[in-house]
Amino acid sequence: MISFKQLPVEAKAAVAAGVVFFSMMLSRSYLAEKLDFRTRRWLLRLQMALFANTLMLMGSLHVWRSTVTTFTRSSAASSFCFMLWKIAVFMFLALAHSSFFTLLFLVAEEPYFFSLAAYTCLGAYIILIFFLFTLGSVEQAYKFLAGRGAKAGTGNKNRTALKPVLAVLLTVVLTVVGLLNASQPPTVNSVEIPVHKLPSAMNNLKVVLLSDIHLGPTVGKTKLAMIVRMVKALKPDITVIVGDLSDAEAKIIRPAVEPLGELDSPLGTYFVTGNHEYYTSDVSNWFELLKSFNIQPLHNENVKIVSPKSTSDWFCLAGVDDIEADVLRYSGHGMDLKKALRGCSSEHAIVLLAHQPIAAKWALQERPDINLILSGHTHGGQIFPLNAGAYLLNPFFVGLYQVGQNTFVYVSPGTMYYGIPMRLGSRAEITEIILRSP
Predict the structure, then answer these.
(1) pLDDT tens by residue, 162-204
(2) Which of 1, 131, 133, 259 is the 20 to 30 Å CA partner of 435?
(3) According to the CATH classification, is domain 186-436 in 3.60.21.10?
C-alpha cells in the first residue's frame, strides 16, 4: 500500500479536506450538546474556513506551478524581476487563502482594507483558476488533434509559456472590470407583476425587494446607508428583505446595521432568514436587533397586509425560514410552509418570502395557490465563471418567472455582494415591484 507520505501533494490536500469535512459532521452530531453556544458557533465557522482552504490548496499548487515553476528553467529565472514575481504570486495566494478567516477576526462597522484586498484576491483566484484550466484544456485538445508525432520544440515551449501569461492578463482585466462594476450603486429595476385576487383597492401597491446585502468583511455601514437612501427615495408601501443580510454576529456589527432604522414603509418592513444568517449561528439576536429597528421577522409566519383604503381588502404576506436551517439542524428553525401559511386561504392573494429559489419550487409543489414568491440567493452568479454554476443549481436563476397561469416568482440578483467586492456578468439591484390587480 502507498503511505500518506508517498501521496502527491494534491492528494494530501484532498485527504486533509476530507478530514476537516468529517470533523464538521462529527462536531455537529456529537459535540452540539457538549459545547456552549458561543464555542460551537466559533468552531463551526473555523471548520468552514479550514475546509475552504484545504480545497483551495489544490488549486493554489496548480497556480504556482503554472505561473512560477514553468519559468524556473528559463534565462529570466535568476533575475531580480522573477524574484519579485514569485513574491507577488505567493502574496496573492496567501491573501486569497486568508479571506475566509476575516469573518472570524476582521468584521467591524466599515470594512478593513486587508479584508477588501483578501477577497479581491479570492475573486481573481477563481477567475485565474478558470482560465488556466480552460487554456490547458484547449492546449491538450490541440495536441490531441495535431497528433503526437511532432517532436517537442521551441514552438511547444512558447505555447506552454503563453498559457499562464494569457491567463494572468485576462484575470487582471476582468478583476478591474469586476471591481468597477461592484463599486457602482445598485441599479433600480422596476417590475410590474399581476397578482391574482389582489384587491382592486391595492392596485399599484409598491413593494421594494432587498436581498443578499451581506454585511460583513467587505460591506459596511456606508453602503447600507446608501441602500436605505435609495429605498426611501422610491417611497415603497412595503419593504422586504429576503435573507443574507449579514455574515456576522449581531453584537459585533450592530453599528453598521443602524441605517435600517430609517426605513419607514407605511405598511411595514419584513425580513426572512437566508442561509448565511444560520452560518452566523446568531439568528435569535438578529431577530431582536431587527425588531428594535421596527423590522418584523417572518419566522414561518404571516401577516395580513391591509389596504389603507378599506380594512376588508387585504392579502397574505408570509415568510419561511431558509432551508439551510434544516441542514445545519438549527434548533427551532427550518422551512415550515404549513405553519407559515396558516390562515392564508386561496380566497385572498398570497405573497411568500423565501430566500432560496429551490425553496420557492418546493413551496409551489405543496401550495400551487401561492400567487407570488420573492427570492434571492443566486446573486445572478455574481462573478464569471460562477454564473454558470448558479444557473444550473437553481430552478429559478434571476428575474421574473411565470409558473402556471396565476403564479409568479421573482429572484433578485442581490443588493450587494458576498465577500468578493466584484461583479462580472451580473449587477447589484434594488427591485421596485408594482403589484397589479387583475
Answers:
(1) 888 899 999 999 999 999 999 999 999 999 999 999 999 999 9
(2) 259
(3) yes
